[in-house]
Design brief:
With 51 residues, this protein is an all-alpha fold. The protein has two helices and no strands. α1 packs antiparallel against α2. It is elongated, with a radius of gyration of 14 Å.
Length: 51
């Protein structure tokens, strides 16, 4: 639950910063930033799967 709050906070803060800088599609870039923040958590647990 805490991870979801942190990812949302990163997305919102990224959106605000990019919006203030005048970047087009700031929302899309903020979603990408949130996604890139969560990727290491999935990749670090992917080796735990057994085949």
């Amino acid at each position: 639950m805490f991870m979801l709050v942190v990812i949302n906070a990163i997305g919102i803060m990224s959106w605000m910063a990019l919006r203030m800088l005048g970047i087009e599609n700031a929302g899309a870039w903020a979603v990408a930033a949130g996604f890139m923040y969560i990727v290491p958590y999935f990749s670090s647990q992917s080796h735990l799967r057994t085949y």
